Amino acid sequence: MNNSVGKNNRHVRNMNRIGVISLLRDYGSLTKAEIAAKMDLTFTAVNNLVEELMQEGWIMDAGYDVDAYRGRKPKLISLNPDDIYTIGVHVDPTFVRAGVMNLQGNMIMEERRDFEDNANRGSVVNVIISTIQAVLDQSELKSRIIGIGIAAPGPLDPIQGKILSPPNIPGLHQVRLKGLIEENTELPTYMEKDANAMALGEQWYGNGRHFNSMLYVNADMSIGSGLILDQKLYRVSPFGAGEIGHCTIDMDGPRCYCGNHGCLDAMASGMAIINSVNEKRLGTHCSHESSLVNDQHGLNMSDLIPAAHDGDPNVVQCLINSAQYVGIALANIMNLLTPETIIIGGSLANQYPDFFEHVKETAYKRSLSSFHNQMVLQPSELGEHAGMVGAGTIVFEKYLSEMGDKE
To answer: What sign for the dihedral angle of Cα 66, 69, 72, 77?
Structure first.
């Protein structure tokens, strides 16, 4: 058999396996005939897929379809939520969150721990590993956990399991985190750029369901994105793709940590907003009563959204400016790729809904109407859990594919 044909057949088969899981997530339970009709597959093909997935513990019998019109009642199939689990870990610049997740995307339990300010490498790694170990010990489910997924800020190398040089977590520069976690937990560990993991999580369990192509934007301390094309996470190199944060918005704009000028990240990220607000506060007197008026220290991310909700005019204006820059970047993506949906997540959009509305308004104004009329621009359904759920999903997807390749 031609090698490329064999690879293509395996890819189709693995996508079909994932497709069965996706349908059962969405509908709860289905008959084999219903699955075959929805996936446009033969009954025999679906029967083979169901038998495989049942033997591996992914799905189970769920009784009979009592609503069947006549004749013998067909068997129903559903997910098996209590047999296979993963651990999803979201590494943020200021904290780590880990949770034990079942196949339905529900967190059985979770733990969050904050990093100390200016923490060194050993301290950051210890917090990550101790948080993972805490949920492992408390859940008492290690024998049914198939792996650990890590969603972390890029750039990173998922093949070597190495975090390279995240700008907001200097304690993780050049750290082979995958190996350290595997040594301490004895569980296979997979890493992915945070926005990629979030995109995958939304595709499986959030607002990305039912779409073949999707762009997920993580608007947080940095601006990142993950791209799903033909229901598959798009990567063009081991280091990933979708670096929307480093698209140039203003050629004469501020210098970005990447060395360029006027990057979206340098103009619209949470850090850029903080810098802008602090500059305004130093240069002008704010008469508005807010939580920041008497603060003698610099603004930080935990202050930002509460201050906006308090109505601080400088903060609100900087958030609006940021949302408009993000909207301009998305208009370019919409005109270039026309994804079926664009999902906006991250703390800026999750915690301040007006941010999303300004992004949407600007993106629609600056993109071709014939394109944006075909797209759905929407907020994240997974919210602050997107990173953790996405990280857990990485393991499910890898495991499903690897088991499919062995058949």
So the answer is: negative
**Residue 70, Cβ neighbours under 10 Å: how many?**
5
CA–CA distance, 143 with 13 (Å, rounded to integer): 28
**Nearest to 220, CA basis, from 254, 252, 193:** 193
**pLDDT computed for residue 4 by the predictor:** 52
Name the band, by pLDDT with cuts 50, 70 and 90, for residue 11: confident
Total residue count of the chain as it appears in this document: 407
396: alpha, beta or left? (left if phi > 0; alpha if psi -120 to 50):
alpha
Note whether 225 and 240 are within 8 A (CB). no
Domains recognised in the chain with CATH numbers = 3-79 (1.10.10.10), 85-200+386-406 (3.30.420.40), 210-380 (3.30.420.40)
What is the Cα–Cα distance from 374 to 72, expressed in whole angstroms?
43
Q: Residue 3: pLDDT above 60?
A: no
d(CA 130, CA 391): 17
Quickly state the pLDDT bin for 101 (edges 50, 70, 90).
very high
Which residue stretches of 213-309 are H helix?
A: 264-268, 270-283, 301-309
Q: Token digits for 218?
A: 């993580």
Half-sphere CA count of 189, side-chain side, radius 13 A: 22
The phi and psi torsions of 72 (rounded to 5 degrees) equal -65, 130
Q: CA-CA distance, 387 to 224, in Å (whole number)?
A: 12
> How would you write 100-166 as a 3-class SS string?
EEECCCCEEEEEEEECCCCCCHHHHHHHHHHHHHHHHHHHCCHHHEEEEEEEECCCEECCCCEECCC
> On the CB side of 40, how many CA atoms lie within 13 Å of its CA?
0
Structure tokens at 277: 């607000």
Where residue 120 falls among pLDDT bands split at 50, 70, 90? confident
Q: Provide, rounded to the nearest whole percent, the portion of the chain with pLDDT above 70.
A: 90
Residues 148, 135: Cα–Cα separation, whole Å = 11
DSSP 267: H
